[in-house]
């Protein structure tokens, strides 16, 4: 089981941000991973990750099309950076890629 | 005479300046709200902030609008809506409700007494900016500006000065802008007068501080104050207050938003304004060196 934290953010912050968040949660659950997702959308930051969450996480997913606010919180963590549409199209492989990153496999 | 020209190049330069200053209440409102309510707080506060700015309630109006929009929006974000409507909530409901509620509240309820208050404050300041009161006010502004060299107390005096400037009350704004570079100039002079009282780094730092002072940055004085707060801070406060007081007693004003030395060509009396700067620096330097000598202050790397 992998512990994942993720941030989703898109340009407008209305649709993709939340769809990507939903998809990550769905496929993480399928793989039996634990995931917490912070959304940085039109409503601002929601479900903000605590420093404990970040500390405990094995891997960080940035599913973003724009910049991440509070990037400095993730210094020293393994980060997978992908676009929101990739996650929405194929959430399964996004989670798998993150797991591979933890296990040190080449992508 | 630059200040009475409203057309031509100087008039346009002035237009640039007043346009920039005019943004301040709007930006204050928007970013106070942003800091409370995150992104949904921005747009409504920009709109109502502009209303506050146009109705002439200045900085205070901007601060109040920012707080009101911020907390209302934060509360509205908690409003439960069905998942499918959450987009409608963030795109339409929250901005509409926040803007309408705070905007109308401002126009019909808060704005009216606030306008009276701002007008009263301005006329009180205008009253204070002539005669003996103006000297007293300048002393207070000068001491506050020097006290923490760019920190919170300094910023209170600064905002007050800018506010006066925007209202066209130039006495306090002159004192505030004059105060900016007195501490660095004073400390620079102090290191020149008696090098033995300062470490090599401090002498070097005195030059840097003076250059920063020319460009309107007080913070160059901070290393001196950190190394020896009990002697340096009272000295720069007294020196800066002296400069402001003397200048106010001379009745010199300058109607630009430039700091100490850069404003010199625009002062109503260049010689007396320059004299005020020199007096401030000299008082600061003599007092700090006197205090350091009398109390046998030794610099750490001085050789006995």
From TrEMBL, chain A:
Keyword entries, A-Z: Kinase, Phosphoprotein, Phosphotransferase system, Signal, Sugar transport, Transferase, Transport
PROSITE patterns: PTS_EIIB_TYPE_2
Regions that span the bilayer: none
Any Gene Ontology biological process: phosphoenolpyruvate-dependent sugar phosphotransferase system
Signal peptide: 1-20
Boundaries of every PTS EIIB type-2 domain copy: 4-100
GO molecular function: kinase activity; protein-N(PI)-phosphohistidine-fructose phosphotransferase system transporter activity; protein-phosphocysteine-sugar phosphotransferase activity
GO cellular component, one term: plasma membrane
The protein, known as: PTS fructose transporter subunit IIB
Organism: Lactobacillus acetotolerans
Organism lineage string: Bacteria, Bacillati, Bacillota, Bacilli, Lactobacillales
């Amino acid at each position: 089981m992998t512990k994942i934290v993720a941030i989703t953010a898109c340009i407008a912050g209305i649709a993709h941000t939340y769809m990507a968040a939903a998809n990550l949660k769905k496929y993480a659950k399928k793989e039996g991973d634990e995931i917490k997702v912070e959304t940085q959308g039109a409503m601002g930051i929601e479900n903000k990750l605590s420093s404990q969450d970040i500390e405990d996480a094995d891997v960080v997913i940035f599913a973003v099309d724009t910049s991440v606010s509070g990037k400095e919180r993730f210094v020293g963590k393994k980060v997978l950076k992908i676009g929101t549409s990739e996650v929405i199209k194929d959430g399964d492989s996004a989670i798998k890629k993150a797991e591979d990153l933890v296990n040190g496999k080449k992508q | 005479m630059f200040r009475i020209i409203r057309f031509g190049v100087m008039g346009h330069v002035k237009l640039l300046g007043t346009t920039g200053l005019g943004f301040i209440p709007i930006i204050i409102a928007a970013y106070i709200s942003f800091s409370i309510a995150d992104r949904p707080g921005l747009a409504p506060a920009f709109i109502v902030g502009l209303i506050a700015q146009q109705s002439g309630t200045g900085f205070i109006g901007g601060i109040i609008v920012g707080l009101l929009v911020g907390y209302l929006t934060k509360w509205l974000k908690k409003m439960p809506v069905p998942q499918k409507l959450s987009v409608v909530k963030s795109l339409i409901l929250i901005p509409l409700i926040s803007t309408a509620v705070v905007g109308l509240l401002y126009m019909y309820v808060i704005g009216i007494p606030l306008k009276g208050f701002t007008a009263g404050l301005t006329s009180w300041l205008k009253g204070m900016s002539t005669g003996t009161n103006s000297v007293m006010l300048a002393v207070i502004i000068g001491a506050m500006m020097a006290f923490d060299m760019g920190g919170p107390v300094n910023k209170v005096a600064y905002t007050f000065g800018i506010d006066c400037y925007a209202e066209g009350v130039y006495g306090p704004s002159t004192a505030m802008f004059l105060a900016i570079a007195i501490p660095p100039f004073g400390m620079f002079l102090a290191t020149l007068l008696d090098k033995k009282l300062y470490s090599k780094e401090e002498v070097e730092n005195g030059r840097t501080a003076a250059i920063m002072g020319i460009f309107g940055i007080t913070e160059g004085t901070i290393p001196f104050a950190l190394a020896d707060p009990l002697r340096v801070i009272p000295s720069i406060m007294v020196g800066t207050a002296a400069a402001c007081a003397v200048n106010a007693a001379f009745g010199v004003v300058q109607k630009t938003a430039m700091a100490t030395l850069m404003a010199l060509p625009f002062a109503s009396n260049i010689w007396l304004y320059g004299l005020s700067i020199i007096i401030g620096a000299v008082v600061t330097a003599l007092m700090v060196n006197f205090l350091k000598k009398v109390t046998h202050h030794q610099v750490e790397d001085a050789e006995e």
